[in-house]
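Support request, please re-run this one:
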Amino acid sequence: MKVAKPETGFVKIQTTSPLTTAYFERLQEMRRFFLARLRSGAEADDLVQDLYLKVAGLPANEEIRNTRAYLYRLAANLMLDRLRSQRRALQRDDAWHATHHLRSAHEDVADLPSAEAVLAGRQRLDQVLAALGALPPKTQAVFRRHKFDGVGHAQIAVELGISRSAVEKHMIDALRHLVSRVEP
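Re-run finished. Output below.
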């Protein structure tokens, strides 16, 4: 950072580093550098902006002997980071795709339930919740803690201040009630 004191008496601070100046002088050259390697104008523009952020974030008083070579090294590193990130994203997407899709006769089929199955599942859940609402509060609490929250019988007994066999009886009552009220 250079401080200049012009005739007006005001202090003028120059915050432009030699590297920032070199960046602006070679802006189109850097864009062509990215464009030649990536073949995408949008990617080139993004990387030119990323390069500016990198350059602007460096200390202004840092001495660099060859600003052009330094800019190209920064540009190449940014480009490699971007390519590696894209490769990791593709691998992650491929792994997800492989676990969630089936390939059948040259056709890609999602391994997800159909809209009808989702709707039927929601309707059945509504039936279960409605049937649970008809149970006594303690039986509801036991069932919800065990089946929805995954809490064991012993822990539920401690939480509710009842015996473990009482928890088991509440579970049996809840299951009998649900079997009689919910359609298969």
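The beta strands are 2-4, 12-14, 101-104, 107-110. Helices lie at 18-25, 27-38, 41-56, 67-100, 115-133, 137-148, 153-160, 164-181.
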